[in-house]
Amino acid sequence: MADAIFLALSVITIGSAIAALELRSLIYGSIALMGTLGGIAGFFFLLDSPFVALFQLAVYVGSIAVLILFTVMLVKRELIFKKIEDKRRKFAGIGLMLVTMIALGSVFLDSGIKTITTDEPPVDFRDIGTDFVTYYWPALILMGLILAGSVTGALVLAKREDVENDQRTS
Amino acid sequence: MTNELVDFALVSVALLGIGIYGLAVKRNFIRMLFAVEIIINAANLNLVAFGRFLPHSGGQTLALFSIAIAAAEVAVGLSLIIVAYRMYQNVDIADFRSLKG
Fold it and tell me: Which ipTM value was assigned to this complex?
């Protein structure tokens, strides 16, 4: 049975995920997204993974959410407060969401994972470090290269000066 | 542990559903990026939860890789938003149709 902290965290996470998508203002939306990411970090603490939780706080709440917030600030004021969505697709989207939740939820509830509990001690985070430098070292190097490449690419894209207004062809 | 694996799995299913709803309904580029972030976080939650209940360190290691790759993805996505915004002065993806090849 779930405890009170788990229930509070789920309410915060799911509620702020809905708020991030549905609030009229994009700025409040991105602050609500911070709530979702922080809630996930809380779940990681509950799962005895403090290392991943702190990584999540540093990378997601600390940098990605702030990056999104600054990008939102670069956008015109009218666009920040304008809700752009397909009215016709709204019901289809809600239907798709419910179908996904019910289908996957019933699969989970019917499967054997319902009975899985554990009394074993959590994984020591020194094992993660060992994993990184032994079994996963090629992936670690590749990840570093991908990160460097994508951040450089992002900088080059954002710095382009030959992109001006009125390039729309239609 | 008082919490069971299925509780975490159900929370992650709920987050996945919300993310799919956002991708299907919203036409704002930035909001769609929010939806993608929510879906990635649902996947990370599953990874760490299954890793805890096995117990195996692979779940946390993969979650760390996933977080790092997601950071790269957001950087590229936001720079694409900035370029598209400078070209079209809008963040509505319906206006980006001429980007189609």
Answer: 0.92
